[in-house]
Amino acid sequence: MRWSIFENIIELYQLAGKIDGLKTGIDERSGWVLNKPGYWPGSFAGNPPDSDYPAIIQKSENGLLPPFLIFPADVAKKHLSLFRQHRFREIFKWEGMFLYKQNFIPHRGMPVNYLIQQVSNKQELTDWLSVVKPVMLPDKSLSEKLLDGFISHPSVILLTGYFGNQPVTAGMAFTHNRISGIYFIATLPEFRGKGYASALVSKLTADCFENGAKEVILHASDAGKFIYINLGFEPAGEMSTFLKIGK
After folding, report:
1. Are residues 231 and 136 in the same domain?
2. pTM of the predicted model as reported, rounded to 2 decimal places
3. 56: domain range?
């Protein structure tokens, strides 16, 4: 797994935790943020040494680390018996992807009656959340303090795509050390397959490169992977998310 992918996620968690006044931690191999149940973010992410896995799982069980643990899939696979012993189950597997500017293939053509707009005020934020929440965070919330902080932070871009006056797509980019990560790409179900997400991701990616990013990264679901490949993104290995099941 490409380290820049984990590094960007870790730094995003640190920023979100700082804005929201949460407990966070970071070292050269991993980072985490503790949050109250039902709120994003609240995960541990990284590529720690094999010897650290038992302690990480124990701390997660004891509430000293978040309940969601994100590792490179190939490394986590070596510790499956340990996860099972402590009743941690793999709940997501994502494809990490990366893109350099010279390999970027911008989306051509804008769908009819479709407009992409950067979020800059409360109403636009409400529109953005109306797409992201049901698609990406059906069981999670983002605090108002965090969302307000994202709007005003220079490292964060929030975009919403509108069909007519209706918000139908949304996404976010976060940049740290000239690495931009794309997150929360969402399209309302009835508007999928029309090119709206491709146009929005292309716009986000172009904005990141125009703002000085040397690399853009993301983690893709199987459903969204073809969008990113068509824009020039390359696979960089899978990442797995584990969650404690029961007590």
Report:
1. yes
2. 0.94
3. 3-94+240-244
